[in-house]
C-alpha cells in the first residue's frame, strides 16, 4: 500500500474489503475435544459444556467411576463421549491414551489440559517426591499431552489448546512453591507452543483462575465452602469463581471471536488480581 493510499478516504473501505478475506477457524459441532481431569471441578464443567456445544468428547482422569459418570452425563446431553483412564504424571500413559483417542475418532480439534494437583507444603519442607509429582502432573503432563495430539492437529491444519494455569503463577503466595512453579511453567510453555505451532493453525492459550468453588482450594487450603465464598466477597465481582465461569472461557477461547488470541494467559478472577 502506498502513502497516497493511506491518505485516501477509502482506507477504511480497503481494510474492510481485505479483512473479509481473513479466515477465522474455530470449534465446530462434531469436532473432537479432549479434556483432562474430567471427573471433578472444572474438568467436569468443561466436559459438560462442550457436550452441550456438540463436541465429540475424549475425557481423561484417574478416578474411573467418576470419570465414567461424567461421560454418561455428556452422552445424556447428546454428545458422543469416551472416557479414558489416563494418569497425567505418566508420559507412556498419555501417549497410549492419545493413540486410543486417535484410533477411535481419527483426529482431534482441541485439548484442554486441566488436570492438576495442589499439595500444600512450605518451601522449607516440600519433599522431592511432592515437587516431582506436582511438576509432572501439572506441567510435564500439559506439555506431553499437547505433544501427543499436535501431529493430528498439524495434519488437519487446525487446532486449539487451552491450559489451566493459576493465579499462583504470578502472585506471591506461601505454601506451594512446587504448585506455583508448575503453573508459572504453564504460562511460559503456552507462549512457546503458540510460537511454534501458530504456523500450523493451532492456537495455544491458558486460563488463570482465582480460587473457585471446587474441591481443590478446599482440600489444599483446608477451608470450608462457606469460608471460600466469604473470601470471594472481597473481589470486585463480589464472589469467588464457579466451574461454569471457567467452562465459559474455554468455550470462548475455542470460538471464532478468539481466532486472533494465542499465547495468552487470561485471568478469570472477578477482578481480584489488578495488574497496572
Ligand atoms: N479451583 C480453583 O480454585 C483453581 C484455581 C486455580 C487453578 N486451578 C487449576 O484448575 C485445574 C482444575 O482444578 P479443579 O479445581 O477443578 O480441581 P479438582 O481437584 O476439583 O479436580 C481435578 C481433577 O483432576 C484429576 N486429576 C488429578 N491428578 C490427575 C492425574 N495425575 N491424571 C489425571 N487426572 C488427574 C482429579 O481426579 C480431578 O478429577 C487444575 O489444574 C488446578 O490447578 C484451580
Structure characterization notes:
This protein is an alpha/beta fold and 276 residues long. The protein has helices spanning 3-6, 11-19, 41-52, 64-76, 91-105, 128-156, 177-197, 215-221, 225-232, 243-253, and strands at residues 32-36, 56-61, 81-85, 110-113, 159-164, 202-209, 265-268. It has one domain: NAD(P)-binding Rossmann-like Domain (Rossmann fold), CATH 3.40.50. The chain is built from 10 helices and 7 strands. The chain has a 7-stranded parallel beta sheet, sandwiched between helices. Strand 1, helix 3 and strand 2 (56-61) form a beta-alpha-beta unit. Helix 3 (41-52) packs parallel to helix 4 and helix 3 packs across helix 10 (243-253). The model has no long low-confidence stretch (mean pLDDT 95). It binds nicotinamide-adenine-dinucleotide. The site of nicotinamide-adenine-dinucleotide has 30 residues, from helix 3, strand 2 and helix 8.
Amino acid at each position: 500500500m502506498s502513502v497516497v493510499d493511506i491518505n485516501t478516504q477509502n482506507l477504511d473501505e480497503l481494510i474492510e474489503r481485505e479483512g473479509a478475506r481473513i479466515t477465522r477457524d474455530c470449534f465446530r459441532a462434531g469436532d473432537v475435544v479432549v479434556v483432562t481431569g474430567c471427573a471433578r471441578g472444572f474438568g467436569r464443567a468443561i466436559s459438560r459444556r462442550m457436550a452441550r456445544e456438540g463436541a465429540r468428547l475424549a475425557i481423561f482422569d484417574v478416578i474411573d467411576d467418576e470419570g465414567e459418570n461424567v461421560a454418561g452425563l455428556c452422552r445424556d446431553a447428546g454428545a458422543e463421549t469416551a472416557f479414558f483412564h489416563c494418569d497425567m504424571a505418566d508420559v507412556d500413559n498419555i501417549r497410549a491414551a492419545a493413540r486410543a483417542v486417535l484410533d477411535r475418532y481419527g483426529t482431534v480439534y482441541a485439548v484442554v489440559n486441566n488436570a492438576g494437583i495442589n499439595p500444600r507444603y512450605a518451601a522449607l519442607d516440600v519433599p522431592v517426591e511432592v515437587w516431582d509429582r506436582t511438576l509432572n502432573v501439572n506441567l510435564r503432563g500439559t506439555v506431553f499431552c499437547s505433544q501427543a495430539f499436535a501431529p493430528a492437529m498439524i495434519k488437519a491444519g487446525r487446532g486449539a489448546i487451552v491450559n489451566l494455569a493459576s493465579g499462583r503463577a504470578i502472585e506471591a503466595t506461601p505454601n506451594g512453591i512446587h504448585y506455583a512453579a508448575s503453573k508459572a511453567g504453564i504460562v511460559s510453555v503456552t507462549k512457546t507452543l503458540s510460537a511454534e505451532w501458530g504456523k500450523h493453525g493451532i492456537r495455544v492459550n491458558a486460563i488463570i483462575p482465582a480460587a473457585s468453588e471446587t474441591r481443590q482450594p478446599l482440600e489444599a487450603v483446608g477451608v470450608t465452602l462457606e469460608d471460600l465464598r466469604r473470601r470471594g466477597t472481597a473481589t470486585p465481582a463480589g464472589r469467588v469463581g464457579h466451574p461454569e465461569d471457567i467452562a465459559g472461557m474455554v468455550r470462548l477461547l475455542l470460538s471464532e471471536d478468539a481466532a486472533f488470541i494465542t499465547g495468552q494467559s487470561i485471568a478469570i478472577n472477578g477482578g481480584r488480581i489488578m495488574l497496572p
